[in-house]
């Protein structure tokens, strides 16, 4: 590997090699080719921004490619109005810049977006918007990554770079299950990524499918707008109060884990939850056999942090229903044989990574789920200058840890290949 790095380092400032690369600038019908002597980051969400800021802090240039027309597109374009961070702000800060002190403990979506905007300004991160990465492959003959992006009107650009940082997120694409009769259903069907507010569902019977944090919160929002929501719960789920014993449940868990084994912390969390919210099984929400932290650790399944939905389930304002068997024109048949009429269906069935669709690499990333094969904390680094930020199943806390590690690692190589700096100052940015 070191030998490979040395060759690559030499190539990067070898005039013959550079001339060869520039000849890759092909006729206009073929992709424009840009050689970039730093890191190329795919995705301008919190993870991409954090990686770019940490690299900048280490003196390594980077370019960020983003498929949409703004930073943090998940937060700006695909989340509902009432959203707040569900972890206290100290667990959601990106590296090198904290939240302003006047922010709420659980910042609103707008506060979080404002923070990310000022973060990008502070580190002078200017992503190249409307560029969707459609392919990235390591070219071992030249020792660089070739990354193809498709811009507006289908304009293709090929970037040739030394380091590739994948920051496209765990929530890149909405997951919508295929259900019998879906095309027959006459009402509105949408995924939570297209849900903004319960306002447009006022007075309507709405079936929300999936009881993760999105499904639970959307149900609450629908209730608050006088809609009539029902919630499909197909499996067991851990619902915990967002706060317990005067602290955030997440903060308390982190603190307890310093002293106690995970199994014991799980026990404590479940006892306190039981005292605070009672036995959730009574309302149709059976708990998994494993405790919330163990389950998260083993399967990545996030516990639901309750912000008021459970009270609405208890009061009967939100009805719990089993899995769907099939959809009809204006009705839903459930697996228990019962049928009910609905005006709309909202799929809160989660998201998936899109990495396998564009990254031609199978060693670091699993083709099956688009996550790094090596679990946290070892999933951030692959081979030949490939990195992943934000695939830890640990939210923004995991993002920060990845970004710091990646920047340190790339800086080490960058220093070894220090003449890059000279080349960087000589060449114009892409
Ligand atoms: C409703 C909701 C609430 C959440 N709340 C919290 C919370 O409170 N705390 C927490 O820690 N986490 C939360 N999360 C998890 C969330 O994933 C992280 O907060 C954060 O957004 C992850 O950042 P990211 O940059 O890794 O991914 P994203 O925010 O998804 O950003 C990835 C970016 O990559 C871009 N992209 C994707 N594919 C391509 C491509 N091929 N080419 C170019 N660009 C591409 C996308 O457009 C996007 O802008 C929440 C998630 C959801 C859905
Ligand atoms: N306030 C906040 O900060 C906030 C709000 C919302 C979301 N989030 C975060 O955003 C991420 C995504 O959350 P999410 O709730 O959108 O997705 P999620 O956590 O993946 O939950 C999806 C839910 O849909 C269920 N489901 C999937 N397919 C189904 C089907 N065919 N029929 C019935 N149920 C089905 C799943 O059940 P199974 O478990 O049985 O698969 C699961 O309960 C998570 O990290 C979450 O914590 C945070």
TrEMBL record:
Belongs to the FMO family. It holds the Pfam family FMO-like. Its EC number is 1.-.-.-. It catalyses: indole-3-pyruvate + NADPH + O2 + H(+) = (indol-3-yl)acetate + CO2 + NADP(+) + H2O. InterPro entries: Auxin_biosynth/cation_transpt, FAD/NAD-bd_sf, Flavin_mOase-like. Its cofactor is FAD. One of its GO terms (biological process) is auxin biosynthetic process. It comes from Hibiscus syriacus. Keywords: Auxin biosynthesis, FAD, Flavoprotein, Monooxygenase, NADP, Oxidoreductase. GO terms for molecular function: flavin adenine dinucleotide binding; indole-3-pyruvate monooxygenase activity; N,N-dimethylaniline monooxygenase activity; NADP binding. This is Flavin-containing monooxygenase. PANTHER family: FLAVIN-BINDING MONOOXYGENASE-LIKE PROTEIN (AFU_ORTHOLOGUE AFUA_4G09220) (PTHR43539), INDOLE-3-PYRUVATE MONOOXYGENASE YUCCA6 (PTHR43539:SF38). It comes from the Eukaryota. Pathway: Plant hormone metabolism; auxin biosynthesis. The keyword Nucleus does not apply. The lineage of its organism: Eukaryota, Viridiplantae, Streptophyta, Embryophyta, Tracheophyta.
